[in-house]
Amino acid sequence: MTTAELTPFPSRSIFLGVDVGTGSARAGLFDENGKLLGSASSPIQIWKDGDCVEQSSTDIWHAVCAAVKSACSLANVSEVQVKGIGFAATCSLVAVDAEGSPVTVSWSGDSRRNIIVWMDHRAVKQAERINSYNSPVLQYCGGGVSPEMEPPKLLWVKENLHESWSMVYKWMDLSDWLSYRATGDDTRSLCTTVCKWTYLGHAHMHQMSEKASRDMEACGWDDEFWEEIGLGDLADGHHAKIGRSVAFPGHPLGNGLTATAAKELGLLAGTPVGTSLIDAHAGGVGVMESKLGSDSVTKESDVDTLCSRMVLVCGTSTCHMAVSREKLFIPGVWGPFWSAMVPEYWLTEGGQSATGALLDHIIENHVASPRLANRAASQKVSVFELLNNILKSTVQDTSSPFIAALTSDMHILPDFHGNRSPVADPNSKGVIFGMTLDTTEKQLALLYLATIQGIAYGTRHIVEHCNAHGHKIDTLLACGGLSKNPLFIQEHADIVGCPIILPRESESVLLGAAILGAVAAKSYPSLHDAMKALNAAGQVVHPSSDPKVKKYHDAKYRIFRDLYEQQLSHRAIICEALS
């Protein structure tokens, strides 16, 4: 950070983005050019017990306040300079009572644990039961709900925690709860409700022509669906518990920050707060309009450019976001969601439930992991960087034609937390093919590389599936923690066969959240205008030009696809044996 960046300019417009991920709350401050001035993070608590994963809204709010104050201090930004705030968060489910206090969603009865985290899979059976009804709303989420969506989780609580069910006054997505905690306005985002609650956002198509953004009466709930699945009571009071009003992302909420929230955050009361986004969708908003010099030449229009792109938001999990002007129904892929990310566009949302989490799992559970961690610490590099260096040395030692070929006899199906898309099978299991008794760091490096490749083959499967159903994706954009790993990005480029654009600013999710604040502050006429002004491209990573690399990955991709088909066959054999 330069001295110039640290010098306060009272006239500057600065926008604050807050992102609550799985393990931490982060805050970032951006200027009117979309440049990151400073960021900070604060850890958050998480409880894991089998399929149950829980957090605390109280703990998260404390972490948000700490991160905001630290970011402002690091960037030397005063509260007067912050013109707007936006929140993004994981699509976790928050339960509060009439006083706004937490209501437990945990078998433990611990009242702090009032959030069912997005990755929680306790409601697999409820999801299967909901999908068996074949409600018309399900066609807008790939043909069926996932246990990571909110209706199955709500049904699980109703069936298992009766006292909690009766106490809850509001059920909210985490990002909506954050904006509610900041403003006192419980208007829900079209992003959260449409993507995770089966809300039909296209019920508001006619309201796009209205000049002023406003909170709209929630007319997109399908009451027959809620009644059919056993949650008809959520329609009571004009859907008071799940959302009576909705708004487009970036719509200014209430009267801005309340006095209480402003004091806790170290900001000014009344600072505009924009309607929120899910974290992955904020990543899309933070990168999707990143322009290359050639874009204006090679594409017929901005619409064509936008609709030929897919954003990979790569963190604990990976979300695959693509937009289209027409609604595209794609089996096994969530959506089409109208205006859930970019206003007036239909969103297709693929995903892999464990990517960063899977790499951590593979590395940390290997016998060589402690030695590797100690070496990385002594060399002051990350474990990923050390593994990448081991792979480079191995290529030289073995005369392998290229790094990817080191895994010629190792193949991984990365479904360690089920398959979100495109086969939409939460019961799918991970597969590692090609293990030996070798426990060296070199063997761990090969396992790590094969895992990256397995994840990338999963992305290729999603891209091919989307293109087979009407998309025309030929360019990827990547953001999130894993996008900072050059091996991860190069393998994806080689395997998918598309160039990958990396953003100029490394914190795209925070930028996307900050853009919500900029729109709420009326600094831009619309979310899309703000994206065009504040998104910026950085490095472009191209696929290898070596035809041998393509031939190799085509072969491994066939094996990757076979691993799942074999699993289905094995599942059927065992099912018959036990019947």
From TrEMBL:
Q: Which InterPro entries match?
A: ATPase_NBD (IPR043129), Carb_kinase_FGGY (IPR000577), FGGY_C (IPR018485), FGGY_N (IPR018484), FGGY_RbtK-like (IPR006003)
Keywords on record: Kinase, Transferase
**Listed Pfam families:** FGGY_C, FGGY_N
Residue span(s) of domain Carbohydrate kinase FGGY N-terminal? 15-286
The Carbohydrate kinase FGGY C-terminal domain extends over 311-521
A single GO CC term, please? cytoplasm
Is Transferase set as a keyword in this record? Answer: yes
* GO BP of this protein: pentose metabolic process
Query: Which molecular function GO terms apply here?
Result: D-ribulokinase activity
Q: Which family does it belong to?
A: Belongs to the FGGY kinase family.
Q: Give the protein name, as stated in the record.
A: FGGY carbohydrate kinase domain-containing protein
| Taxon lineage | Eukaryota, Viridiplantae, Streptophyta, Embryophyta, Tracheophyta
